[in-house]
Each structure stands twice: as structure tokens, then as C-alpha cells.
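Reopening this one. Same input as before:
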Amino acid sequence: MRLSRYFLPIMKETPKEAEIVSHRLMLRAGMIRQEAAGIYAWLPLGVRVLHKISAIVREEQNRAGAIEVLMPTIQPAELWRESGRYDDYGKEMLRIRDRHDRDMLYGPTNEEMITEIFRGSVRSYKDLPLNLYHIQWKFRDEVRPRFGVMRSREFLMKDAYSFDLDQAGARHSYNKMFTAYLRTFKRFGLTAIPMLADTGPIGGDLSHEFIILASTGESEVFCHRDYLTFETPPEDIDFDDAAVMQGVFDKWTSLYAATSEKHEPVAFEALPEPSRISARGIEVGHIFYFGIKYSLPMKAVVNGPDGREHFVHMGSYGIGPSRLAAALIEANHDEAGVIWPDIVAPFRVGLINLKVGDAACDGACKQIYAALEKAGVDVLYDDRDERPGAKFAAMDLIGAPHQVIIGPKSLGEGKVELKARRSGERELLSIGAAIAKLGGTT
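Same output, byte for byte:
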């Protein structure tokens, strides 16, 4: 993409309303724009990040055997009255009426709707286990939205829902998602610690939040330091092997880890002092097992192997890609701007032409741009007639992991300069070597 033809409304000044790093940088880098309290438009740069995050989440859900669907954002109130949650959920639910005076709502979550889909489609235990997920916008009318997209009213959510014949099967489904979440966050370069958590309005008696430690976290969390060195389950792990999945769960819950709601000071203080971590944390995922909480009132049953009807056991599993974008910035930034991991960078390479109009510089940029584009490398080519300092600042702000700097001086020696955004290291290479190193072909 040529920057001269791209929509990238960079802000030079730090917005006064932005309280944390991710909010400041997302606004300044032209990723988002606030349209109302807790409601943001995602601009082209931000959309690219959302798509890349969602793609990784989708890959790991599919790997674990979940199947993608897409449910509507607007839901009939009758479903929530069936489950008993319509009046209990609170003011966070946006209640509306359509032109026929029917009670509707903007879905904050989808347990009721997925249960209705299941009960209308599945009759036999032979069709279980089943895990259905989607990636969809949600709305919760937070009393005090803050921290940008970290705690907004409208947000993108991956929510999955498992259905099993009995508690044993449901626990296996829970363990599969537990494992998939560990893998998902590690692919983003994050160490997410599963912590015993409160079930809140979702309900149930088993829940874990996946927390990354960060000074700007919303709440205090407590855990054993050894979690920071645990190895993530491998790509080829057998999700169908119940013993293997239970082993992953047992390992990752073997040490103390709890959110503030579930914290037990006596148990925590019994740990050796060097092993204790008391810190702020950011929730990046949340999973629940709630048995027949929804299937019982909504009559979601299957015929079992004994010929009798059984209420299915369920769980739900959430990851917020929009929230995760902010969490990744909190974990990857410096004073100059964002430092994206390659896997989610909106543009993996930033190509900077220091002298637009110079035949040699223009020619070298054209050659590199064409070669990398052909190889499927996302490139943002700064072909604007701007000062070099402004171009460097823009590329650092938006966080392109690799920068190729083309100027008359280095070209005179047959070289171009490569800069690594994270380390700041620079090297001079020939055009062909630079293309090859960045994944292209000459």
C-alpha cells in the first residue's frame, strides 16, 4: 500500500482523554476514532490488526475442533426470559423495542441464542460433542467505559459454546478450550496465566480468566512466579485425548493463581516469598463451565444411549480481539510508538523513500515494493513528499516491525538500510539481500 493513497489520520498531539498507553497510541496512530462514550470506529490500520488477530484466534479454535457460525447481534427478549436472565442481567444490557413493539436486545453474550439453535437442530447424543463459535460485535452498556477499547461498550468477541452429554464430556470440552487458549495467546507472544475467576452473570461453578501481567491492568492478580516459565502445549497436541487435555489443565492449575475476587491471602502467603507475584493484570480470555444452567430452563435435550432424554451440559469461552489489540500494545511499545509482533502487524514492512523524485531512490523503492508485494508481504510504502524525520516518526508510531530506508547516500554504495523496530538495530544490505531477508524473491 502506498501511503500517499492510504487513509492514515495520524495525530501529532497526545489526546487528553486517553489514560493508558494503548488508548493514546491507538488514537495517535490512526487505528481508531471515538464516536461516542465507549464506542469507536475502527480505521483502516486498526481493521488490519483486528483481522490478523481474529485469524489467529480462528485457526486455534478450528484446530481444537470448534465449528464457526455467525449469530445476529439483535436478539429477542423471549429467549432471555426463558433462561431467567432478562431481568437479572442488569443495566449493562441494551434493551430495545422494534416497530411491532416486541422486546429485543443488543446481545451482550449468546448463551441463550446458541442454546435455541442447538435445541432446534440436535436430537441425539451421537451428534455430540459439539462446539460452535463465532466472532461478532457485542454491546454492554458499561457504567464507566474507559481505557479506550480495553473497556468499551461495543467490542468484538469470539465466543464459543460447547455441548456434551454429561459432566465428564463437558470437562473434556472445557480442557480443550483451556489448551487452545494457552496456544492462542502464546502465538501472539503473550504469557497468559489461567487464574481461578468469578463466574459473574454468565453463571456456573467453574471459570478461569487468562491474564497477562501489565502495570496498566484493571485489577490486582496473584500467582506463582513459575507460571512465567511454563511451556505452551505444542501445535500437534491431541485435542481428542482426554488424558492429555486433563494433563495440560492439571499442570496449568497446579500452582496458586487467582483474580482478586477469588484471592485467598492465607494460601498465597504460604508460598515462598520469591515465588509470589502480586501485580496488575489484563484479562484477555475467559472460560466457563455451567452444566445445565441454560439447557434445563430452555429444554435443550438429546436422546442418550440409554434411550432417555438428557439435558446437555454446556460451557462458554470468550476472547475479545478488540481488547486483545490494546493488550498487545500495552505489552509492546516504547516512547516512539507501537512495536507490533510480526504476526499481527498491520504492515510487516515499512518502506521509506527519503528522496521522492530521485530516479535512483524511486527505482529502488519500486523494485523492493513489487518484490515484497508479489511474495505476499504486507508493505506500507511511504512515498509522500515529506521530511525524513516525519517519515521515521510515522513508521515508528504505527509499529512496522521492519523498516527499509532508501536514500541517495546508501544507494550510492549499492546498499539500502534495514532497521528492526524492536531492537533498533540497523544494517546495510544490497537490494537483493534486503528483499530476500524480508521474505521476498528477487
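So the earlier flakiness isn't reproducible anymore. For the record, The mean pLDDT is 95.
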